[in-house]
Amino acid sequence: MYQYDHYDQQIVDERVAQFRDQTTRFLAGRLSEEEYRPLRLMNGLYIQTHAPMLRVAIPYGVMSSEQLRTLAAIARKYDKAYGHFSTRQNIQFNWPELARVPEILSELAAVQMHAIQTSGNCIRNTTCDHLAGVAPDEIEDPRPYCEMIRQWSSLHPEFSYLPRKFKIAFSGALNDRAAVAVHDIGFYIVRNEAGETGFKVLVGGGQGRTPHIGTVIREFLPIIDLLSYTDSILRVYNRFGRRDNKYKARIKILVNALGAERFSLAVEKEWSANQPSQLTLNPIDIERMRAHFSGPVYESRPEGKSIHAWYQANTAFARWVDRNTVSHRIAGYNSAYISLKAPAAAPGDASADQMDVVADLAEQFGFGEIRVTHDQNLLLPDVARDDLFELWQVLRVHELATANIGLLTDVICCPGIDFCSLANSSTIPIAKQINERFSDLDYLHDIGELKIKMSGCMNACGHHHVGHIGILGVDKKGQEFFQFTLGGSADNECTLGERLGPAIKKHDVAGTVADLLDVYVELRIEDERFLDTFRRVGLEPFKARVYGDKGVENKAGARATA
Amino acid sequence: MQLLKDGRPAIDTWMFLQYVADVDDGGDAIVALQHWSAHRETLLKRSGRNGLWLSSEDEIESVAEDIEHFAMIALEFSASTDGRHYSTARLLRERYAYSGELRASGEVRRDQLFFLTRCGFDSFLLADNCDLEDFLRGGNDFSSVYQYASDDRVPVYRRRIGTV
Ligand code: SF4
């Protein structure tokens, strides 16, 4: 993975000093709350329901064992001994004390981590396929480009006060595991007819209150133009994005207002006017960056007999292997998911002890590297198949072996009203409700792949628009209700979910999921997934079951079946 | 108001013309974009220097042909979080090769100074209660940078490989 040199270290250290100074001035009354706000946000610090929330960047979801141990230590020392992994591959601490945040930042800087631009109206942490570098379906490893974007966008003098936040995602594989199409800019690595790799560029995707799927504005962007082209998109957005209404300020609104064609023309014009650009990458820039990610040297680890024996003998283990491990580009290896969705856990939360365990395991069964997935789980990228049983045994002891990756109980969920001051509703208790209702493992495995995504308000941090079942918390006269959407997906055929009907009462959420699944089980053909069945049969049968005869005329919340 | 120019306090010689089309006393006069467009011919005949003031909404392209006539351009920040004029400044310096005084006015604070300077601003019109020494400290926040801008700092990725 990428290692800082003295320049990177110096910049991060100076950022800590700058933030320490800003915080001191604020606490001394020399900066008003209004003046301090954009400054703290630009460093990932929110003022939340209980205390400040600090969001720490895990660049494109990759971290080392040493870094994870530091996160654990910070969780113990400054927080309540746990952290929350977010859908953007970051980690959030919910209970730090404002005056001590600079201290936390300097502990982070000591292990090459930071909170730079994890919030605020600037270019955020770039996200990426969590299987980058190890996936068998990969065209090219996207991490070098993520790191280039990370550096270029960090403390950018021109683009630090954008109309709104700005998110960039990369995928270098055939299957999109990074929800690329719902980002402000999405880059797919593709190959052209000449066999060269480059980027297919999408712009204007996003979630929030007006979800959009990104539009392609360049079918093939040569790698050398990555930074110059991104720079041009940002300049057009910085200058012409709306600033009068924060709900209309994302780039998707600009792209929509101009139309994809005119927007793309504006970018191309800006880009041409900058040619020749200092931002054009040299082959040596690219080679140097790629070298950082050339990957570990894998020793040959042929599969022994024991893995098969254990697989035959132990159903729980077999289930975990089937569900939580995926194939690796190197024979004899797998990538193993570590579920942070144990039945009693808040989705995405990990205790400091669990973090330490995972850090150790990554060293014991890998090369000391851990990934964060945008489904709020962790991943050990390089586990020899022969070690899987041993790994599973340790994970089990620490409640990290729930075999539910991609299943119904692998719920994606934002922190909701328990932690977020913008929330309309709770989310964690709903995830619990679902977990309790669907505790039968055989049923879960029978239902198969199902992505439930839940947000506590329209900001959509829980990505509900792209959930196979999306659940959005809404407030109706002080009461919590839940709006369902069906058929969303963030994979290659990205779709936004369709609204099922009036919002559902809090206590009926799991019951409604059960109704939806009954319809699916009745209508599915062979091994169709929920999403496939939905795409085939449409919304009606589901709607009819949930709302009964009264259909959509039903008064909001009054589910026909109590 | 206090003026900082090239890192030092300076006297503001610019008179803002708002109500009269033109004052030709040989002094420095600055006008808003609309004013310039309306009285361009008259203003061009002045013996003193001309300056241009742009609100956050104004786009530099509309006077692209006239830039050589200005000895000073002031860009207004209506809010410290309105970043449009960072782009305007870079366009002026890099695309239009503007080399006159480039002034930031309005909501301009210490914590923006590093970025403002990098984008080509060399003068700052500040509130009377602004502590100038403290303000100037903001210009030294970072000793290395990751990107090219309008200043002559070389980004670290080029310093690493020595291909300046
Ligand atoms: S979706 Fe709403 S409630 Fe949930 S974390 Fe985001 S802002 Fe908070």
Strand content of chain A: 15-25%
Radius of gyration of chain B: 17 Å
Give the neighbour order of strands across the main sheet of chain B.
Answer: 2-1-8-7-6-5-4-3
Note the run of SSEs of chain B as H and E: EEEEHEEHEHEHH
Bound molecules: iron/sulfur cluster
Shape of chain A: globular
The CATH architecture classification of the largest domain in chain A is 2-Layer Sandwich
Total DSSP helices of chain B = 5
Number of helices of chain A: 18
Q: Any idea of the CATH class of the largest domain in chain A?
A: Alpha Beta
The CATH class name of chain B reads: Alpha Beta
Overall description:
- The complex is a heterodimer of chains A (562) and B (164).
- Chain A is of the alpha+beta class and 562 residues long.
- Chain A folds into four domains: 6-109, Sulfite Reductase Hemoprotein, domain 2, CATH 3.90.480; 142-289, Sulfite Reductase Hemoprotein, domain 1 (2-Layer Sandwich); 306-397, Alpha-Beta Complex (Sulfite Reductase Hemoprotein, domain 2), CATH 3.90.480.20; 412-556, Sulfite Reductase Hemoprotein, domain 1.
- In chain A, strands 16, 17, 18, 19, 20 and 21 form a six-stranded mixed beta sheet that branches. Chain A has a five-stranded antiparallel beta sheet with strand order 1-2-5-4-13.
- Chain A has helices at 6-27, 33-41, 65-78, 101-109, 143-153, 226-240, 251-258, 260-273, 283-292, 305-313, 315-324, 352-364, 388-397, 428-437, 441-447, 509-523, 530-537, 540-547, and strands spanning 45-47, 52-56, 62-64, 82-85, 91-93, 127-128, 168-171, 185-191, 197-203, 215-222, 325-327, 333-338, 349-351, 369-372, 378-384, 412-413, 452-455, 469-476, 479-486, 498-499, 504-505.
- Chain B is an alpha/beta fold and 164 residues long.
- Chain B has a single domain (2-160), classed as TIM Barrel.
- In chain B, 26% of the residues lie in helices and 23% in strands.
- Chain B has five helices and eight strands; from the N terminus they run E-E-E-E-H-E-E-H-E-H-E-H-H.
- Chain B has helices spanning 33-44, 84-95, 113-118, 132-137, 156-161, and strands spanning 2-5, 8-10, 14-16, 28-32, 50-54, 70-77, 101-106, 123-126.
- Chain B has an eight-stranded mixed beta sheet with strand order 2-1-8-7-6-5-4-3.
- The longest helix of chain B is centred in the first third of the chain and has 12 residues, at 33-44.
- Chain B is globular and about 50 Å long.
- The termini of chain B are far apart.
- Chain A binds chain B through residues 5, 7-8, 10-11, 14-15, 17-18, 22, 35, 38-39, 121, 148, 151-152, 154-162, 235, 238-239, 243, 273-274, 278-279, 282, 284-285, 288, and chain B through 59, 80-84, 86-88, 90, 95, 109, 111-112, 114-116, 118-119, 141-149, 156-157, 159-161, 163.
- The complex binds iron/sulfur cluster.
- Iron/sulfur cluster binds at residues 414-416, 420, 422-423, 455-457, 459-462 of chain A.
